[in-house]
Amino acid sequence: MMALMSFSSKVLSPDTKIHVRDREEGHASSSSRPGVRTLTDDKSMISKRQTQLQQHVDSLQLCRKCPKMQSRPVSGGPVLSRVMLVGQAPGSKEPVFGRPFAWTAGKAMFQWFEQELGVTETEFRRTVYMAAVCRCFPGRNSQGGDRVPSRQEVALCSEWLRAEIAILRPGLVIAVGKLAIGRFLDVSPVLTQVVGQIFRVEKFGRSFDVVPLPHPSGASPWHRIEPGKTLTKTALASIRNHRAWITRF
Ligand code: SF4
Question: What's the Rg (C-alpha) of the chain?
Fold first, then answer.
């Protein structure tokens, strides 16, 4: 616990007590009664944000800022949700299928979600905004695995993440894999210390909860053996019980 509290980021607390803000907090009402928001106000606000998000995704798909990336950006589409899933970077298959987590790691991850959250892959994709630390396939490293994106690529792609967080104002971010967890906690995470906990984080100008998950790829057995197996289950339970998850869409 002490180690977690000493993170250099703006992680506020690794606890399980959750404060959830109102969906449209901080926005003025057009109602004639000050402070009273009408259904029409809500609908118009949602429609405006949906348009913003669509424009954002359209721009993202045109991004070519990183010359070493080996594909075009992969997007999960403009899903206006209170929950974001942030992965690491797509593999070689995702650009072919045109969606994140489209191959073996995705199969394992959606199986977790089906078993522990009670949602099918289709339902998850329809109700959760899916992002990543980097949106393009980085190519292979000299050992034949996927290249880890450079710091510069991560920094460049963070501008997309920042814009998404500004538009979506998520209550919950599910960070999948060490690169994604580290992006929010600003440390190189030790999975046994972070999986199974909820972190209140201030990042990209907003405050939200982060639930770390291990990467579901077959490359690491961490989530299949103890204590990883139990910690992963605990993390999934904390998503299932999170208010932003319950009211996500
Ligand atoms: S990794 Fe991100 S910043 Fe780099 S080209 Fe792809 S979308 Fe653009």
Answer: 18
108 lines ligand 1 (CB under 6 A): no
- Which protein residue has the closest C-alpha to ligand 1 atom 4? 66
- With a 6 A CB cut-off, is 153 part of the ligand 1 pocket? yes
Bridge partners, 207 (sequence order): 202
What's the whole-model pTM score?
Answer: 0.86
Residue 58, judged by CB atoms within 10 A of its CB (0-12, 13-18, 19+), counts as: exposed
**Phi and psi of 212, rounded to 5°?**
-80, 140
Q: Is the CB of 156 under 6 A from ligand 1?
A: yes
Task: State the 10-residue block means of pLDDT for the chain, 249 residues long.
Answer: 37 39 34 67 88 98 98 98 98 97 97 98 98 98 93 98 98 98 94 98 97 92 96 98 96
Q: With residue 165 as reference, give the H or E element that holds it.
A: helix 151-168
Domain 2-22+37-246: what homologous superfamily? Answer: Uracil-DNA glycosylase-like domain (3.40.470.10)
Q: Where are the domains of the chain?
A: 2-22+37-246
DSSP for residue 100: T
